[in-house]
Amino acid sequence: MNPFVSVIMAAYNAEKHISASIESVLNQSYANFELLIVNDGSTDKTQSIVEKFCKRDSRIKLINNYKNFFVIKSRNIGIEKAKGKYIAILDSDDLALPNRLEKQIKFLENNSEVFLIGSSAHIIDETNKIIYDFNATTGYYELKKAIHKNNLIYHSSIMFRNEKVLYREKMIYSEDYDLILRLFSEGKKIQNLPDILISYRQTVGSLSKTKERLIQWLFINKARKFYHERILTGKDNYNNFDPNSLINLLDINYPIDQNDLLDAMKICLYRKDRIHLKFLLKKYHKNYSVSIRFILYNLLSKNKYIFALISTIYSKL
Predict the structure, then answer these.
(1) What are the tens digits of pLDDT across the range 182-204?
(2) Mean pLDDT of the 124-131 span
(3) Glycosyltransferase 2-like domain spans which residues (predicted)?
(4) Residue 305 sits in which domain range?
(5) Is residue 260 located within the same domain as residue 164?
(6) Which DSSP state fits 239?
(7) CA neighbor of 116 nearest in space, from 184, 173, 168, 38
(8) Which of 201, 231, 257 is the last residue of a domain?
């Protein structure tokens, strides 16, 4: 008998928390599932841990990537191999509450017009202590109205119909948000259940105010731009997008689209990141002629007090 739902778990060097994540799936009140764990070239004990679970429960399938492909491709590999009517995502450091699969399957079975469902979540720390609860926006129209401003769906909570919808692999750092925005622009109905069905782990190594965080914001901004392009024209410019131009943002010699560079400056202003703004101004001046936006950002960067004031005002808009 084929599994009714396929749980996809991408894992890279996940030895610290993956056992608890697997156990949370095995402890589900709904039993007709397969758990596809895609080991993305881990160099720690992830593979051996998963192999022990495979011997214990035949519903667990291990897929080993021969090298680290990154989480997006790993999830796609899992989706392509999934046999279930539904696909559920759970990251290798998060936990599914015992009734997660049962409640989401029941909802999707009773609401055929809904393509994807998420949920509310406990936000936990490294020790499983609850930091706070995320109370999800539930209604489709409320989500659709706000989704272009904020991703209101915790990705480890989603379950969707298995129509072999894949993540776009160039959307590094924002593949989950890009997927949700694509589904909305295609007219797919998306909702959140109010129930808390997962525990989402905030780790010490989470992205913060660093180069990586700035680049992540650029990818989020790109996902939003593509969304607006699709709404206006029915298609976006993804095929011509070079993700390396964003990844190498802080390489002064690596080319980047002028508008993307200006967007990066705007993000620096929003994030009160005057140091990176100054660098980006140098990169802009080296590659492009002076524009009004360049002059504005350049003036703001000159005085740290004015910059802090304008950044504070802008971040509250």
Answers:
(1) 999 999 999 999 999 999 998 76
(2) 94
(3) 6-166
(4) 211-315
(5) no
(6) G
(7) 184
(8) 201
Give the type of residue at 75.
R
**Arithmetic mean of pLDDT, 10-22:** 97
- The strand pairing partners of 119, in sequence order, are 193
Of the residues 147, 169, 201, which one is the last residue of a structural domain? 201
**Which runs of E-coded beta strand occur in 125-188?**
130-134, 159-161
Tokens of 260: 């993307």
Pair of tokens at residue 291: 């524009």
Residue 84 DSSP one-character state = S
Give the gyration radius of the chain's Cα atoms. 21
Cα–Cα nearest to 68, from 44, 48, 50:
44
State which H helix or E strand residue 152 sits in.
none
- What pLDDT sits at residue 300? 92
Residue 200 pairs in a beta bridge with: 123
Distance CA 9, CA 200 (A): 14
Phi, psi of 86 (to 5 degrees): -125, 155
Q: Token digits for 88?
A: 């559920």
| CA–CA gap between residue 173 and residue 50 (Å, rounded) | 26
Q: Which tokens hold the place of 203? A: 């780790």
Secondary structure (3-state) at 20: helix
Written as one string, the DSSP assignment of 109-141 is HH-TTEEEEEEEEEEE-TTS-EEEEE-----HH
Nearest to 265 by CA among 288, 242, 233: 288
Burial tier of 16 (Cβ tally within 10 Å: 0-12, 13-18, 19+): middle
For the segment 130-143, the average pLDDT, to the nearest whole number, is 95
